[in-house]
Write a structure and sequence with these properties.
The protein has 191 residues and is of the alpha+beta class. 33% of the residues lie in helices and 19% in strands. An eight-stranded mixed sheet has the order 2-1-5-4-3-6-7-8. α2 (67-75) links the parallel β4 (54-60) and β5 (84-85). It is globular. The chain starts with a strand and ends in a 6-residue tail after the last strand.
Length: 191
């Protein structure tokens, strides 16, 4: 299953287009208050850490087209994020089918091999030191022997939980869900 959405020029994009890059895939909408609140932090994260090895991929899910979300981003001064959209909401539906999205915002940290490192349900402080440490650790992590780009999601196993916990420890702290009201999932699946 390929997760597909559209770039600013209406060109179809998949996660494979970000091969060899760690990405933070964020699903958001203008009608989602927590999503709106975390957009400046995602923009700051992209400004500070974005480049050849990392990108924040914030995909807007508004059904009305790109005008409203682009106006919102402009009004709040978000300028470093690329604009991605899925007005059909197929991306969210596909992630729900494999229990990887419960609502908005949903954010998935994806390895350069296209495997899920972790998922955050709900808002987070993405410009915080903890978030940056977690992402830096994910970028430094070498390809694990068991990681293979897969078309479908593999079920969670104990080894994948241990790898995620090790990653969180290496990052000198975890994304604390209680701070943001969200939940953290430690699955390491190809998405």
């Amino acid at each position: 299953q390929h997760l597909t959405f559209k770039a600013e020029n209406d060109t179809p994009v998949t996660l494979a287009d970000f091969k060899d890059k760690t990405i933070l895939l964020n699903l958001w909408a203008t009608w989602c208050a927590p999503c709106r609140k975390e957009m400046p932090a995602l923009d700051e994260l992209q400004a500070e850490m974005g480049g050849d090895d990392f990108e924040v991929v914030a995909v807007n899910l508004d059904r009305g087209g790109p005008d409203k979300p682009k106006t919102f981003l402009s009004e709040i001064g978000v300028s470093k994020l690329g604009f991605y959209q899925d007005s059909s909401n197929k991306l969210l539906q596909d992630l729900r089918k494999v229990a990887r999205a419960t609502g908005l915002p949903t954010t998935i940290l994806v390895s350069p091999q296209g495997c899920e490192i972790g998922t955050m349900y709900g808002p987070a402080e993405w410009a915080s030191g903890e978030a940056k440490s977690l992402i830096a650790a994910a970028m430094k992590t070498k390809k694990l022997a068991s990681e293979k780009p897969l078309i479908s999601v593999r079920p969670m196993n104990l080894a994948s939980i241990s790898r995620y916990r090790a990653l969180r420890i290496m990052a000198t702290g975890s994304m604390r869900a209680r701070r943001s009201g969200g939940r953290v999932s430690g699955r390491r699946n190809a998405i």
